[in-house]
Amino acid sequence: FSATVDVKPGEEPLKLRANLEADPPMRLDGVVLVEPAESPRPEPPPPARRKIAAARPPPAPKPIAAATAVAPIPEPVTPATPAVGYLVVKTTPAARLTLDGRDLGRWTPVPPANPIALPAGPHTLLMVSADGRKLEEQVQIVAGETARLVRALP
Predict the structure, then answer these.
(1) pTM greater than 0.70 (yes/no)
(2) How wide is the angle at C-alpha 139 spanned by C-alphas 112 and 124, nearest 5°?
(3) Rounded CA separation 142/123 (Å)
(4) 87 with 118: CB under 8 angstroms?
């Protein structure tokens, strides 16, 4: 069945309550819905007749325009992680640490639980105690390993 309801702007929406009966017609609170008359179905067109033509070569394939060509998706690039090693330092007396001319803001002891992470390679470590004693050491940091330095300042 089909129904058409016109609601004008500004009017309250209609509330319809359906009372479906076993046999048509159906009733909606005073509105009788009837099944629309069936419209005649158009006859299907006759099958198309095929013309037999002389043998022709198949058409050449169309070139793909540059704008529609799909570029291959490159493999994801994983950024190289810098090789990192660790440094543990214990001095007597305690000392302020400067690495490669930069103050680390740390004092000894540097425990294994909280080592200094450094790029692999050679580094210059300067240890200065509170009373001014100094000791400079060259340390070699190996990636993935922990270098341990235990020194008494002169």
Answers:
(1) no
(2) 115
(3) 11
(4) yes
